Amino acid sequence: MDYSILDFLALIGSVCLFLYGMKVMSEGLQKAAGDRLRNILSAMTRNRFAGLMTGFFITALIQSSSASIVLVVSFVNAGLMSLAQSMAVIFGANLGTTFTTWVISLLGFKVDISAFAIPLLAVAVPLLFSKKGRTKSIGEFIVGFALLFLGLSMISQYVPDLQKNPEMFAFLQRYASLGFWSILIFWLVGVVVTMVIQSSAATFAICLVMFAKGWIDFDLACAIVLGSAVGTTITPLLASLSGNVAAKRAAIGHLLFNILGSIWCLALFYPFMAMITSLCGYLGLGDPNGLYNFVDTLQKTDPLIYNNLFTNTLPTEHPRAADLSAATEQLIAMQASASICLSLFYTVYKFINLSIMIWFTNLYVKIAEWIVPARKKAEEEFGLKFIQGGLLSSSELNIASAEKEIAVFAERVGRMIHMGQELVHMKETNDDFNKLLSRIGKYEDISDRMELEIADFLNRVAEGRLSNEGKLRIAGMLNVISEIESIADCCYGVAKIMVRKNENNAEFNDQIYTDIDNMYKYLNEAMDMMLVLLNNIGDIDEHSLMRSYNKEREINNLRNQLRNANVANINAHKYAYQAGIYYMDIINDIERTGDHIINVADTAKDLYRRQKHDTPVASRRKG
Fold this sequence. Notes:
There is one protein chain. This protein is an all-alpha fold. The chain has 24 helices and no strands. The protein has helices at residues 5-42, 48-62, 65-78, 83-108, 114-127, 133-158, 170-173, 180-197, 200-212, 218-231, 234-240, 245-267, 269-282, 290-301, 303-309, 321-357, 361-371, 377-380, 395-424, 431-462, 468-503, 510-535, 542-571, 577-609. Helix 20 packs antiparallel against helix 21 (468-503). The longest helix is centred in the first third of the chain and has 38 residues, at 5-42.
């Protein structure tokens, strides 16, 4: 056996280069058109066919159905689309994977793209040093494109020859002539290989090389490709493990789509293959098995030509050099046709599967809900809605999910303001006081956890390839979540002041309650304005921004008025000195809450509205 461990490692490295090239190409494209992709997904309609086309085009652009499907989960959780609508996008994403197979098939063998890869790098690398972010992103896209096909070329070089190394794949060859059982076994091979390398495109590339060299016949190649469609579901499943219920349901829907598709295709495999063979003949591609038969016949009848067919090591002065040249030309023509036939099989299968399954969307939803039942509302109330843990594969696109998650975070913290105002009016002897106090404490603990989880998500996104705009957004969002958590701390501070006030038996009169309610009135209005800004962060309204600043000034002015009046009221013995202390502590705490709210507006203004001018973050306001 002449296939060494170094050859095997070289094959693994070639696959890694292929996957890395796809990753760089995908991320470069996301950075160059990140906003456009976010807008497309955000504006997705409720029509299942529009969602289907959206899934198709997004996957074709970013070259990864797994990334598209993981991204869709965020919009499901947000209520921008239902689980049923997300299924249509998932179906479209599965069809979108065929785009990559056609690129590989049409360019991988018909044209020696690896010969152009190095010149492409010569053009692309200088673009990486451009000061313009978009130009850099285009350079990264071209670099990824070049690396992808360099990897494909190296896969072709290092894939072991099943004919020359039968002992290495003896366990497969033993099952290659068992009729339909062979189809099932090679289908399983496609599933396992794709689960390991987590890319159906890479599996397709390996299978295409093996088929194009005549090492496996058309039926077995199609079985491997069919299995790869199921194996690719592993990425969304892994990503959903640490996600919420919607994430798991979306991943299950993706799995069901591909498993049920494989079941009907395997059940009708031979009639389906006969249809594909006829279609290839109708399109002038010839018999898909012609390549395998040609190589197999050549090996049995003319070992000399066969042994030099793929290496082209026969000297030009050899008497049979002309025969080798003719056989090589015939092989290249057959390879091109065979690779197109394999892509045609994958596309027709995906299209028919989609045409069938799109009508059973509601059934998919019910099955997914049955497999992954909803948790109790108490468990879901504070779970992250837009973002999950797990795998991140689309850094630029994940920013939009984080922005919406922050808006949800702010809305939840805003509830604490109402709780604090309600607690001020309660008596300590009331059981409801202790229940509400415990609830506020729980909300404060949850806010701490949410800040950490969102910050961790943002830091992991920042580790990916981001445009300058994306980096500014990450910096702004980290500031915003810090300010929102500080709002929660202030709200909990009011609760602790009330506990101390009750422990010391201090009493508030009606005037104190009225003044505190007035402060809360202004604070609630400021909080509502902040929520409007966060929910429309991509299109900040100048009028809303100015209203936020005016409201913060009103809070400061009222605080100053109440501070001055408090001294006069204590001197006039309208209430006890100790009550005045707790009263002012609450007023000051409310005013600090307003400061944190306006800090959020400052960050939104400087990092979103003026980001094109690279305006630095405004200094934080204090009092």
